[in-house]
Structures are given as structure tokens and as C-alpha cells.
Amino acid sequence: MATGHNLDDEAAVLFGNTLRWQSEYLARQRPVLPARPGFPRKIKPLVRLGEREMAAYCVLRGIDYIVEECPMAVGNKHIGYKEALNEIEATSPGAKQAFYFGFLARAVDRFADATPEHAEAGDTAACTRCGVPTTSEICAFCRLLEKTEGAEPVHLTIKGKRVDA
To answer: Can you identify the CATH homologous superfamily of domain 1-118?
Structure first.
């Protein structure tokens, strides 16, 4: 499964996980995550590109995009982490890239024992609503569905054509 996470997203998540020393999350802070029981292989092909680079590409290619943060992200700490990293980046260009890729090169393997593959059996169970493996009673997707119940769909326009997302 490919996701659209970019450098800004990954650096912000890494920053938050480092602040709280969340070992399991730090262990899985990679651009490629292997498949494991109940979870597909995941890749993040855009991790080398920042939000501004992606926006510039969209402008050059005539692709409409949404500038605002996801309305479901209100209160999300990662938005604050992105803002803090943007301030650092403004005075020290390349800081986000150095932080994220420095972590990948020098530290991510130190957290290998914290990955679910090394966790004790029973750390994951089936979601009580949909049955997919999760580390909590209700999986993140079902929690998101619960949060968005009744929300209006998002409509995108790409090259003048409306696309429902």
C-alpha cells in the first residue's frame, strides 16, 4: 500500500515520537514497512519531498489541491510539530531533511526490538468492529469512521475535473 506521506509529515511524526520516546513507533518510522500478519507492506514514496515542493509540482502541472489541513486534524499535535519544524527550517534550511534522514541512517535500527514482530504474542487483537488486527479494542480506521460520521465528503478538482475523494 502506497501512502502520500511527505517529508513534512514524517519529520513531524518523528519529532512527536521522539519527544515521547515511543519506541514502537520510532521502530516503524521508515519509508518502507514490511508486511506482517493482517497488515500489508507499506511504502511512502514521497518522503523526500516537502509540502512546498509538492505544491509547486501541482502548480506546474495544473493540478488543483487543498491547501488547508484536514478538518479532522483539528487538535492534532502533529500540526504544532510541523509549525515548530517550519520555524527551525526557516533559520536552518535542510533541518527537516537532516533530522529525518539522519534518524533513518543512524538510529532507527536501535529500536528494532520494539517492533510488533518482536513483541510478545497477544499485543494485537482483532478490532471489535471490523476484525482487522489492531493494538487497541477498535482500530484506527473504525475510530476515524466514528469521528467522521455525518461529515460532508471532500470534493477535489484535478485539471478542471471534479473527483470525489
So the answer is: HUPs (3.40.50.620)
